[in-house]
Amino acid sequence: MRLWDTNWMQVEDYLRRDDRVLAPLGSTEQHGYLSLGVDAILAERASVEAAEPEGVPVLPALPFGLTPTFTAYPGTINLRVSTYAALVRDLLDSLSNQGFRRIMLVNGHGGNTPASAVASEWVGEHPDTQVLFHNWLIDPAIWGLAQSIDEVSHSSWVENFEAVRLPGVEVPEGRKPLVDPDALRRSNPEQVRDLMGDGPGGGPYRRSDEDTQKVWSEAVALMRERLVSGWRE
Questions:
Q1: CB proximity list for 46: less than 8 A, separation 6 or greater
Q2: Maximum Cα interatomic distance, the chain, rounded to a whole number of Å
């Protein structure tokens, strides 16, 4: 259930019987022909679908993250690492203070991985609370599944879900060559834009909905499994 679909009294009642919560971590950044909100939109939707059978609340996705690589593309919003770390700590403090003791951070953006270290440090100071950091799409099992279907990269077919397609914007057919990841790591934002051009990192722009749904279903199932059994006793 989405937290915004409840009131405070319902959350208080929930905390009498359960202490789990999901917090999606997103980003606002270029995704080629897809929405700038891909990382936030998909992380929240996947979280809601995974949590629904368990009746666990899902926070609205944090819309901003760490994305210095794409700042030469208009619409990309980047936070400083110190800002983001403070934001994640404040989020964990708020949830813990209210009685949530099992918090799953559902990451939708690779650049946000420093949040995992922040969460580990925070847990060391709050031993009564558990935090799972889960990459819903780039988890090795899910990304590996996608790679077994076709080449994958940022904003390629693997993120091309209906929920993030834009009205009146046609996603190209075909594929583009994969951008050299080493070249990207050596590049400043302007050079990154030169390398990536229209935004995707290479591979097919789109594949069949059957292929994307296969990845989605496996990703949701894995998240639900960890939500149920990923906690220490």
A1: 24, 106, 108, 136, 137, 216, 219, 220, 223
A2: 54
Tell me the residue range of the domain where 191 lies. 3-229
Tracing tokens 């990451």 back to the chain, one arrives at 107
Give me the chain's average pLDDT, please: 97
- Domain count across the chain: 1
Question: Alpha carbon of 104 to those of 19, 20, 73, 177, 212: distances in Å?
Answer: 11, 8, 31, 35, 24
Q: What is the pLDDT of residues 2-47, one digit of tens each?
A: 999 999 999 999 999 999 999 999 999 999 999 999 999 999 999 9
Q: State the Cα angle at 219 between 216 and 223, rounded to 5°.
A: 140
Q: Residue 206: its pLDDT value, please?
A: 96
CA–CA dist 42, 38 (Å, integer): 6
What is residue 103's predicted lDDT score, i.e. its pLDDT? Answer: 98
Whose CA is closest to 69, among 205, 190, 160, 194? Answer: 190
Give pLDDT, residue 233: 79
CATH code, 41: 3.40.50.10310
